[in-house]
Every structure is written in structure tokens, then in C-alpha cells.
Amino acid sequence: MPAKDLNRITALLHQLADVSTILLAFLKDKDPDKVIHEILRSVLSQFQAGRAYIFEYDWEGKTQTNTYEVVDEGIEPAIDMLDHIPLEANQWWTQQILLGQEIILNTLDDLPPQAIIDKEILSMQDIKSLFVAPLLFKDGAWGYAGIDIVNEYHTWTPEDKEWLRAIINIISLCLQLQRSQQTAVAEQKYMQTLYRNMPIGYLRLKLLTDGYGKPFDFRVMDCNPVTETLLAIQLSDAIGKNISDYSMPIHDTVLKLLESSLQEGVYEGEIHIEANDKYLHYIHYYTSKNEVVALVDDRTESHHSRKQLIKAKEKAETSDKLKSAFLANMSHEIRTPLNAIVGFSDLVLEADNREEAKEYTKLIHQNSDLLLQLISDILDISKIEAGTLEIIPTNVDVNQMCREIIKYYNNRTGADLEITFEEHMEKCYIYSDKHRLTQIINNFINNALKFTESGSIKLGYRQISPTEIRFSVTDTGCGIPLKNQKDIFNRFVKLNDFATGTGLGLAICKSLVQQMHGEIGVESEVGKGSTFWFTHPYNIKYKPEKSKASAVALHERADKRESSKTDELPIMIVAEDVDSNYVLLQRILKDSYILIRARDGKEAVHLHARLKPDFILMDIKMPVMDGIEATKRIRKKDKKVPILAVSAYAFEQDIAHARKAGCNDYIAKPIKLHELQEKIKALL
């Protein structure tokens, strides 16, 4: 065999060994998508190709979607544009895949005449050669995987084809296994939840017989929590033991079960439990020769239960209607600011002068803020439903917080509307989550702004007991009818369908207040205005005091900055792996700092050690080493360099995590120009 062919086969075997290792990792790794990308990257490397990808079919919608893609350096990713493409868009191609046929092209001229549309599509992507194979399962093709070579033509050898077939079969198996595991886990969780939370008592009993085959007792094999409540006994420690070993108020029923155990069938009856005065209905049946399953339900308050079910049904129907209205409204609410953002972005490019462009930019920012608020509300309500919304308390200067809020709104409202900080204590400190308190008050003020064209909006608070304070926002708006006030804190409720917002804000406020151990309410009269209020625990022992050391440190920092003024720009390391994000930061900061880019956390650590920068802008989510780990390593050697964390994750726990790692402050994406500049200025 020629040395060239031998080397090629050896390389293929090495690649196959690598993929085998990756396949083993797939079975252990909690992130199967990561493994699929590694396999595609291995294929890309082997053939020095431009693009490796996977498409999956949606038979219900008759579309195909690019679900995985790996591209070579210099090749533009296309995955975001290849979502739900109609199958009829490339009929010849689809027909080949559905027939289980591979598409192997040394050049595009290998395509048959009937594939002229497919040829045009491939030509537009500068594809020279390609190999595509169907992803198969027992009922046929469910998608396809392929590799595009764009730099030069490639003649596919038999070894190439066999290797790629093996790889694609491995990918198909991996994805099918992933889907099967996901389905199995979901079904298992569903069954466990059903079993543990169903309102009917469940008992699994093993029939015990003597030497003559006559039944004399039952052994408890399993039961659910409801059974213990219904029977007023502790069965959890009885599992594996005989019923006769315990003093149970069901002796007569057990005897009847034993008598009926001689015959197979379904039996039912009534039983009275004196310990809790419940009348229960039971039904039992055989699952095998010596095993009985008993189901028990409470009939004591059947009439009351029916009324509750009717009420629950009406509530569910109302909630369903509200959700339907909410979902129908969301398209409008999201598209409205998006329309403005897209439209004015185009107009900025065509603006005749700077003032006109500035006005368009202002409108873009306003609509961006609105869109971010919509997304924030949806994320918050999702976290509330999942039970993962966290309150992270710190020492809060209430007067300072309220003044900051009022200052923000006074810079944004017109002369016809006065927003003031009214009734308040001379000094007030509480231990709470400042971000969430601000969120509640902002929501109250934003609602007041929607319904108050002129007059005033007043923010205030007062102590109502030794252990409680009461915040309030009072407006002179249109007011709220009494019949609507009881529902205003429910989810998806909007009293004015033409007002912006999701109808989630006040529901989120209610959950936040309850988590902070307070109460929330509204007082309103039509035509005279409204007062939204909430209470919060008050404990003066959390009063913070500025230490002398802190004051000295602030003066020292100010003196240091003043004395270090020089014509030389500060050096800033920007740790950012995404090119477009770095270009944005470069445009913002290039005139004020010497920017050095790190493409991952590991590179940031090395650059810090070599350059000793004045500032680090640290992206949290990066390849090789993330920003959290990079910050920890830098902090082991340098406690002073300011580090500003940057991330798309904006939850309180993410901010706390970054601070714990050693970051001085945190800014969330999308980055706002003035906020970034202010944070950098404060840290330098």
C-alpha cells in the first residue's frame, strides 16, 4: 500500500478513536449537545472543511431546521437563518434523504439536471464539494448530517465515505439516545409526581399464607403520603412489616380483605377511621397472585370537595382565559418596541444631521428599555412559578434609595407632572434587597405615570409599628373602580388594554412583598387617584455606619487618581470571546483606554500577569475558562486591580456569584453606554 494511503488510513483510524472517546463522553456528560459539537468539530478538522451540520425534520410542520452547526475560521455561521425551512424548498435533496440515499458531490456538476434549484442554493454558499447522509431510525429518515468543503474541490475516497458513514451513524445514535433519555426522565418524573401528589391513598400489600395456603396477614410493601393522613397512622416505618404488628383501626377491613383474597377480582367498600372521624371509600384488586393494591379516598366532605372542585375549575378557566389574552397581547407588546427599534435604526443611517440622529437614537433607547422590561417581567414570573426567585438582603439606606428613584423620574417627566419624595423618617435603615425594593416602587410609579397626565405622584413611607414600615405611592390620576381593585394584583390583569406592559408587574410585586414578609394593597377612588402601598419589616439593629477606615480609603483613592493624572491612557484588558461584542466595547472605550483583548479567561489571566493593567472588563461566559474562574485566579495574586463583570445573566444570584469570586461590580447585557462609563469611572 502506498505510504500516502497508509498515512491517510492511519489518520482516519485516529479520528475514529477520537470519536469513540467522544461517544463515551456522551454517555457520561450531562451536556449531550456539547459532545455533538465536538464530533462535528472533529469531522471539520479531518477534512479541513468549511462547515459541518445537522438538520432535523418537523413532519407536522413539513419543515427542516439546522439544529447543530460548526464552521471553520472565516466562514459565516448560517444556523440562525436556517430555521423551519419548507421541505419543498429543495425537493430533489429531500427526496434523496427520505429514500435513505447519500448525496456525495466531488463537484456541483455531479448533480443531476432535476436538482437545478439545489445547485443554485449550494453555489450561493460557495460550496465546492459535499457529503450528506440521512439520519435514520426504524421508521425512516428523521434528518441528515453533512459536511461542506468551500475552499477547494475534494474527491471522496472509499475510506472517506466509510468513515463519514460511521460518524453519522454515531451521531444518529447519540441524538436518538438523548431524545429517549429525555423522554424517559420526563415520564419518570411525571409518574413520581403523580404518585406522590395524587389525592388518593395508595397501598401495595403482599398476601401472606400459611403452610396450607390459607391467607393470614398482609405485609406493607409501599404507600404514598396521603395514605398516612387518611388512615391516621404512620406507615412509613411499617413498610416491609406485617399489618398485624401494628395497632391499626382497620382490623375488620383487613379481615374482609383476607376473606376475599381467596378469589381474584375487584372489591370495594366503606371504612370509618375513628382517630380522625373520616369515612373512607376503598377499592382493592390483584396485580399478581399474592399482591394486592388498595386505593383509598376520603368521602367525608364530598359535598364540600365538589364545591371546591367547581371553584378550582372556574379559577382555572379564568386563569386560562387570562393567559390566552396575555399570550395574544404579547405579540403586540413585543413587536411594538421592536418595530420602533428596527425602524429608527434604519432612519439613523439616513439622518441628515446630528440632531435628527440623536432624536432617533433616543427613541431607540426608550423602546429598548421597554422591551427589556417586558423580558424582565416574563423572567421574573417564570422564576416565581418555578419557586427560584431569591431575595438577597443587604443594608439599605431607605432615604437614599427613595431620593435616587425620584431623581431618575424627575429627569424623564414633563412640567405638567410633579414627582416628589414626601412623608418619611429623618433616618431609616433596613436589612432588605435594595434591587427588589426599587423594582416594586418603580412599578408603582410607572403605573401611576400611565394613568396620571397632570398633577402629582408622591412617594413616601412611615413607621406604623415598632417592627414595621409602610411604603406608598400616591397619584392624582383617574383612579380604579372598586370592582377591579380585588383583582389588580392577579397575574395577567390589565385594566387598560391600550396601556403598555404585560399585566404581570403588580403580580410580581405581590410575590416580592410576600417573600419579604410584608403585605401589599391599593386604595383608590375613581376620578381622585390611587395609593399603592406595601409594608416591610423594620429592625433598627441593621443600621449601617460608615467606618473611618472606609472614609480614609475613599480619600486615598481620590488623591491617588488626582496625583496620577498623565497623558498616558490607562491599560484595560477586555475579556470577550464574541467578536461583535468586543467591537462594540472597542467603539465605546477606545478613546479613553488602551484596550487589550483576551478571547477567554485563561488568556485574561496570562495578560494580567504580563501587563499589570489598570482595569479588567471580564465577560462571565467564555470558552476554555469562564470569567468567574479567571477572576478567582487573578485575585490570588492581585487584590487591587478593578474588575467589572459583564454577562447576559442578570439575576441577583449571578451578581452575588460574581462578587464572591472577586469582581468589584457587575453590568448586565445589553450594555448601556452611560452606565458602563459611570461604573468604570467609579472603580478607577
Q: What is this structure, in a nutshell?
A:
Helix content is 46%, strand content 23%. The protein has 684 residues and is of the alpha+beta class. Helix 8 (302-350) packs antiparallel against helix 9 (354-386) and helix 11 runs antiparallel to helix 13.
Layout of helices and strands:
Elements lengths: L2 H26 L3 H16 L3 E8 L4 E9 L13 E2 L4 H8 L4 E3 L10 H9 L4 E9 L2 E10 L8 H40 L3 E9 L5 E9 L1 H7 L19 H10 L5 E8 L4 E11 L2 E8 L3 H49 L3 H33 L7 E4 H13 L6 E5 L7 E4 L1 H18 L3 E11 L2 E8 L6 H4 L19 H11 L4 E6 L3 E9 L10 H16 L7 E5 L3 H11 L4 E5 L2 H11 L3 E5 L7 H11 L5 E5 L4 H10 L3 E4 L4 H11 L1
Parallel strand pairs: 13-15, 19-20, 19-21, 21-22, 22-23
Antiparallel strand pairs: 1-2, 1-6, 2-3, 4-5, 5-6, 7-8, 7-11, 9-10, 10-11, 12-14, 15-16, 16-18, 17-18
Helix pairs in contact: 1-2, 1-5, 2-5, 8-9, 9-13, 11-13, 16-17
Low-confidence stretches: 545-566
Helix/strand class = alpha+beta
Largest sheet: 6 strands, antiparallel
Instruction: State the share of residues found in helices, binned by percent.
Output: 40-55%
Number of strands: 23
Shape: globular
Cα-to-Cα separation, first versus last residue: 67 Å
For the residues shown, what is the average pLDDT? 81
Order of strands, widest sheet: 3-2-1-6-5-4
**What amount of the residues lies in strands?**
15-25%
Q: How would you portray this structure in words?
A:
With 684 residues, the chain is an alpha+beta fold. 46% of the residues lie in helices and 23% in strands. The chain contains 19 helices and 23 strands. The strands form five sheets. A six-stranded antiparallel beta sheet has the order 3-2-1-6-5-4, sandwiched between helices. The chain has a five-stranded antiparallel beta sheet with strand order 8-7-11-10-9. Strands 13-15-16-18-17 form a five-stranded mixed beta sheet. A hairpin with a 2-residue loop joins strand 5 and strand 6 (140-149). Helix 1 runs antiparallel to helix 2. Mean pLDDT is 81; it is low at 545-566.
